[in-house]
Design brief:
207 residues, alpha+beta, five-stranded antiparallel β-sheet, four-stranded antiparallel β-sheet, 4 helices, 9 strands, 30% strand
């Protein structure tokens, strides 16, 4: 029998690296839960999409008769975020309230308590290694580092390498005076490449 080749390490160009960094930074900022292959639940998808949608469409707020203010996200936006044009390639079969997460579903909208901000944190992610697992399916395994920056860290440097951060600190760049971003987690993920700018996340586990 022919021996099946193992995963092949991929040398990323800057565009591919930035696309994947953006994907996983989105997962980090919007509290994507960890999940084994294809095991993310509909409730988890809804929770992620509402949090993502509340951050992205934070001008869409609504106030009830008691004066409570909410983010309001349309169902069609939830479907797009998790669907074939979004991050997971999945379809929500049953839209529903998630009272445990303070998320209410009613008449084509999801409502999420407004706290004065979108809730997205400053943590971000970088792809450390990329492996091609299945060329026919365009399936990749990804090692992802999650970083927590200090308040002075310039957002535009999120795609720079840790070595580049260290050099800027050594060179006395003011924004690095308090140190470089701290690595707070490493994730093992699996993605399917849909096109050069888009991947579906099918597995997301803490290493």
């Amino acid at each position: 029998d022919k021996v099946k080749a193992g995963p092949k390490k991929v040398k990323m160009d800057s565009k591919q690296r930035e696309t994947l960094n953006d994907l996983f930074s989105t997962m980090v900022k919007n509290n994507c839960p960890t999940f084994a292959r294809d095991e993310i639940t509909e409730k988890e998808l809804i929770s992620f999409a509402v949090e993502y949608g509340a951050g992205r469409y934070d001008d869409e707020t609504w106030t009830d008769k008691k004066g409570n203010e909410y983010f309001r996200v349309k169902v069609k936006d939830i479907d797009r975020i998790v669907g074939p044009k979004g991050y997971f390639g999945r379809k929500i079969k049953k839209h529903q309230s998630l009272l445990k997460n303070s998320i209410r579903y009613e008449k084509g909208y999801y409502y999420y308590p407004y706290d004065g901000g979108c809730g997205a944190g400053s943590s971000f992610a970088q792809v450390a290694k990329l492996f091609l697992v299945n060329e026919e399916e365009m399936e990749y395994r990804v090692i992802v580092n999650v970083y927590q920056p200090n308040e002075m860290f310039p957002y535009e440097d999120r795609n720079a390498t840790p070595d580049e951060w260290r050099k800027k600190r050594k060179d006395g760049i003011l924004a690095y005076e308090d140190g470089i971003p701290e690595r707070i987690a490493t994730m093992n993920a699996t993605v399917i490449k849909v096109d050069p700018k888009r991947y579906f996340l099918i597995e997301y586990l803490k290493k």
